[in-house]
TrEMBL record:
Domain of life: Eukaryota
Record-listed E.C. numbers: 3.1.3.2
Transmembrane segments: 16-39
Catalysed reaction, written as an equation: a phosphate monoester + H2O = an alcohol + phosphate
Organism: Pediculus humanus subsp. corporis
Protein name: Lysosomal acid phosphatase, putative
Gene Ontology molecular-function annotations: acid phosphatase activity
Keywords of the record: Hydrolase, Membrane, Transmembrane, Transmembrane helix
Listed SUPFAM superfamilies: Phosphoglycerate mutase-like
Family the UniProt entry places it in: Belongs to the histidine acid phosphatase family.
Length: 390
């Protein structure tokens, strides 16, 4: 991916007036650059950061289920419980908060102010906890916000909604039209052939797991458990070695099947894109006061995949724990134009997110007016109405 190059300064003998002049110009340029974007260098002229929206996957977790022949199904291996955020997961989320603090230092305040931030989470314990730990890394209390010398932490609200009402993150609110699209996807020729081509693999997995494996959904379910156990440094059974990478490929394919058609993309990935765009519009028009600077969404791998696929970005790997989609709204100081940058953080070990090209924009940055035009057909006008089967 293209990266900003380093600025090189060359010295030469000049008069004291020339040196002072160069210094003044350089200082002005540096100050502009600093305020432009978290004190980072930017291309195509100075600009100011206006708004950030971050959609991230929760941290490392325990398995949510086991297969009958699983050697690690005894709960003594998982004292925190099924699906729980692990110690490693907490560390990952704390790192994510620290990453956001470093990257956006100078744009977001050192102190937590409720008017600057809004955090929304999937109603899963691991997501709620991930959001809380991320915020601990992003906003450690300082100065008059320190309320207890025994703990370097302050409470920051995390909002959520019951899963059966969620039409933003996991999108589990009943939607007949989406269910219809998903059912038709499963019977699509492409997926029928995938199942036929992997019939021998399904039989192999069925034999070794003691569970009926006859679909991509079943493979993904199995792979998720194996992946968790592998990350926990538990020795996987020998039979898994031959097909581990193949199972990962099929697991990703199953996640993609959830947004296989234009309608399913709109209904599952579209609502969150719509909210991101609305916040951008409200920010530049001053329609919502107080105006937030940063929105955080604690979510799942399927959330990230659904959003990217709805945007037309389909060449993606299965998101790792802590993977993040970052939408940045900027305004150029030169002409006042607003534009959007889309970034992706592969995991919390990565120090620099990569630029993602928004399809139909053709550049790493996309004019806001173009972004609004591009996303308009990708998002539902009225989700409730469009979920109905006419």
């Amino acid at each position: 991916m293209p990266r900003a190059g380093s600025v090189k300064w060359y010295k030469k003998k000049e008069s004291i007036y020339t040196i002072l002049g160069v210094f003044a110009i350089a200082t002005t340029f540096i100050l502009i650059s600093c305020f432009a974007f978290g004190f980072g260098q930017q291309s195509n002229g100075p600009r100011t950061l206006q708004l950030i929206s971050v959609i991230f996957r929760h941290g490392d977790r325990n398995p949510t289920h086991f297969y009958p022949n699983d050697p690690y199904k005894d709960l003594s291996y998982w004292p925190d419980g099924l699906g729980a955020l692990t110690k490693e997961g907490k560390k990952q989320m704390y790192k994510l908060g620290k990453f956001l603090r470093r990257r956006y230092q100078g744009f977001i305040s050192d102190k937590y102010y409720q008017d600057d931030l809004y955090t929304f989470s999937s109603d899963h314990d691991r997501c709620l906890m991930s959001a809380q730990v991320c915020l601990a890394g992003l906003y450690p209390p300082i100065e008059d916000q320190i309320w207890n010398d025994d703990i370097n932490w302050q409470p920051i609200p995390v909002h959520t909604i019951p899963r059966n009402l969620d039409k933003l993150i996991v999108v589990k609110k009943p939607c007949p039209m989406y269910d219809k699209e998903l059912n038709e996807t499963y019977y699509n020729e492409f997926f029928i052939k995938i199942n036929e081509d992997n019939n021998d693999l399904y039989k192999y997995l069925t034999k070794h797991t003691g569970s009926q494996i006859n679909s991509l959904t079943a493979v993904e379910s199995l792979f998720n458990t194996l992946e968790v156990e592998d990350k926990m440094k538990l020795k996987l059974p020998d039979w898994t070695k031959k097909y581990f990478n193949k199972m990962k490929e099929l697991a990703m394919l199953n996640l993609a099947s959830l947004t296989f058609t234009p309608i399913s993309k709109k209904l599952k990935g579209g609502p969150l894109i719509k909210e991101v765009v609305q916040h951008m519009s409200q920010r530049i028009l001053g329609l919502k006061q107080p105006s937030k600077k940063i929105y955080l969404y604690s979510s799942h791998d399927v959330t990230l995949i659904s959003v990217l696929r709805a945007l037309g970005i389909e060449d993606i790997d299965k998101p790792d724990y802590g993977s993040s989609i970052i939408f940045e709204l900027h305004q150029k100081l030169t002409d006042g134009d607003h534009f959007v940058k889309l970034l992706y953080l592969n995991n919390t070990e990565q120090t620099d997110p990569v630029d993602l090209r928004i399809p139909q924009c053709g550049e790493d940055e996309c004019k806001l007016k173009d972004f609004i035009t591009i996303t308009k057909p990708l998002v539902p006008t009225n989700w409730e109405d469009e979920c109905q089967i006419s």
